[in-house]
Write a structure and sequence with these properties.
This protein is of the alpha+beta class. 39% of the residues lie in helices and 27% in strands. It has a single domain, classed as GIY-YIG endonuclease, CATH 3.40.1440. The strands form two sheets. The protein has a three-stranded antiparallel β-sheet, sandwiched between helices. The chain has a two-stranded antiparallel ribbon with strand order 1-2. Strand 3 (40-46) and strand 4 (53-58) form a beta hairpin. Mean pLDDT is 81; it is low at 1-8 and 15-26.
Length: 130
């Protein structure tokens, strides 16, 4: 069962969240690491062969990667089997996170690859390591 929740913040920005009851729980250690560092995350995920890249922003990295891995949400990442977390940044402000996401998305593929290589040269799944 899924429930869509629509919220409006003090600046009038509307967000829609999907709440889902699932059998398995997301990993806890990544949540602990992320919660200590900040609230908002810009991330890059790829497929098993590292040929497809997707950049996103979220306020719950663990939950969002879990959704990608279990294909809970229809779209690009489900269609192209993109679920391996290879890069993320942490922000305390949503506007900075969105700005950074747009900057990464708007850049060339080579820049994304260089960004990933700078911190994760073997392209390990950071979700699995947490």
């Amino acid at each position: 069962m899924s429930l869509l929740l629509s919220l409006t913040d003090e600046k009038g920005l509307r967000t829609i969240s999907s709440l889902c009851h699932c059998e398995a729980e997301p990993k806890q250690s990544l949540r602990r690491k992320a919660s200590m560092a900040g609230k908002y995350y810009v991330y890059i995920i790829t497929n098993k062969r590292n040929t497809v890249l997707h950049t996103g922003v979220t306020n719950d990295l663990e939950k969002r990667i879990y959704e990608h891995k279990t294909k809970l949400i229809d779209g690009f990442t489900k269609k192209y089997n993109v679920s391996k977390l290879v890069y993320y940044e942490v922000f305390s402000d949503i506007y900075n996170a969105i700005t950074r996401e747009k900057q990464i998305k708007g850049g060339p593929r080579k820049r994304k690859i260089d960004l990933i290589d700078s911190v994760n040269s073997n392209w390990r799944d950071l979700y699995e390591e947490s």
